[in-house]
Amino acid sequence: MITVYGFSPSGNCHKVRLLLEQLGQEYRWIEVDSSKGETRTPEFLAKNPNGRVPIIELDDGRVLAESNAILCWLAENTPYLPDDAWQRAQALSWMFFEQYSHEPYIAVARFICGWTPLDSPRRADLPRLRERGHQALVVMERHLSARPWFTGDRYGIADIALFAYTCVADHGGIALASYPAVRDWLARVARTPGFVALPDPDATAAALIAQS
After folding, report:
1. What pLDDT is stored for residue 29 in this prediction?
2. Closest Cα partner for 189 from 27, 7, 22?
3. Is the peptide bond before 54 cis (omega within 30 degrees of 0)?
């Protein structure tokens, strides 16, 4: 049995849930609300000193952190990670892109819009974050204009990694209207077997997003 510690509205956490559901693998989910400081308790920090979700814990006590590392481990020897070394490296390159050039802008813009007060000084960062988020989407659009997936020839973990926050980019004020190939790809992901959607933000976050 795998235990997942995650915050359901988080795209990084949803990556893990989505792959587990699509693998048909049994797991236990423990909700940890990072927006309320629940990842900073001594109990949680004993599992992940970095104080972030998601993490997974195995029955023997082993713990693995970092969403994309978890995806790689879960996908080993499954169709969601290519066997071919070159295709695998290509998939990993997109996962590194997601964590370095995509998530720090699209996900952070979403977090600021939905989980910080309207008078938060962090909101001054939104124009820059949105600009960099659009730069990442331009790169994705170019790739998807010629290919259907990011994980080689078929859907897999690089697609899951990039899907999680792209599908809610508008929550951070980053519209997808100019990216038809990205929108088509999002629709393809949503049609994959076992797909589960990212939960909607709660009422408080939704109200903040609407005012942002």
Report:
1. 98
2. 22
3. yes
Instruction: Name which of 102, 208, 91 is nearest 165 in CA terms.
Output: 102
DSSP string across 61-90: S-EEESHHHHHHHHHTTSTTS-SSHHHHHH
**What pLDDT, in 10s, does the model give residues 193-203?**
999 999 999 99
What angle, rounded to 10 degrees, do the helices at 103-115 and 203-210 form? 100
Nearest alpha-carbon partner for 52 in 37, 38, 39, 71: 39
Alpha carbons 96 and 158: distance in angstroms, whole number: 9
Phi, psi of 31 (to 5 degrees): -75, 130
For the segment 155-169, what is each residue's pLDDT rounded down to a tens digit?
Answer: 999 999 999 999 999
Evaluate whether 162 touches 186 at the Cβ level (below 8 Å). Answer: no
Cα 105 from Cα 29, distance rounded (Å): 27
Distance CA 18, CA 54 (A): 13
Looking up tokens 């929108």, which residue turns up?
183
Separation of alpha carbons 108 and 131, rounded Å: 12
For β-strands 27-31 and 2-6, DSSP reports them as parallel
pLDDT tens digits, one per residue of 3-28: 999 999 999 999 999 999 999 999 99
* Burial (CB count <10 Å: 0-12, 13-18, 19+), residue 29: middle
